[in-house]
Amino acid sequence: MAGVPESVLKKRKRAEDWAAKRADASKAKQLKVKTQRKEVFKRAETYAKEYRQQECDKVRLRREAKKAKGFYVEDEPKVVFAIRIRGINDMHPKSRKILQLLRLRQIHNGVFIKVNKATINMLRRVEPYITWGTPNLKTVKELIYKRGYGKVNKDRIPLTDNAIVEQVLGKYNIICVEDLVHEIVTCGPNFKAATNFLWPFKLSAPRGGLDKKRLHFIEGGQAGSREHLINNLIRVMN
Fold it and tell me: Which of 1, 29, 88, 96 is the one with CA 20 to 30 A from 46?
């Protein structure tokens, strides 16, 4: 009986080694996913509890203020959502540059923006071309879950898996979509990294279009700040 050639034995041994390595890697990945799933659920529950507590506190403070015959004034918003509503006709070069800095390059693009003196001045400078306001938790969740795309190696990737979020933002302890939502809603320390990871939202045109785009919102138009009423517009465009 002829012996098995040495090259065949080497090839067989190499294939067995690769199979063993693949099996070990698969087991390690499954274990990691299982552990991470528990962590994600735990974080989601913590965030839900935090949001409920915030709502209860607001109700309590309003009641206390009413009982004392006063008024409860909510905190100034930390985050706004801006939507571009007009094109580039008759636009000043400086306004065009500001829209590029805000990443609002196309009509019906939307982005989350941190509120500070600089961003408010920029928003006011380009107010005729955009509308903006304060998004609530429901709006932020719906936007990210329905129209959320991430920037991975300069590519636009849909957020279909928590692994995509962890791959880019894991170093900031943001490992799932719920972490991303929480970071934006609370305007956390890694807000800039979170918003830069999110591709500008491409919203749909509302049914029937936007009328009187050249007028300010308080004049019956569409442009400028609309505070909490931005949520109604986003629902129509999402």
Answer: 29
What is the phi/psi pair of residue 226, to 5°?
-130, 15
Enter the tokens of residue 234: 């986003």
Helix ranges (H only) for the chain are 6-67, 93-101, 117-125, 137-147, 162-169, 177-185, 191-197, 230-237
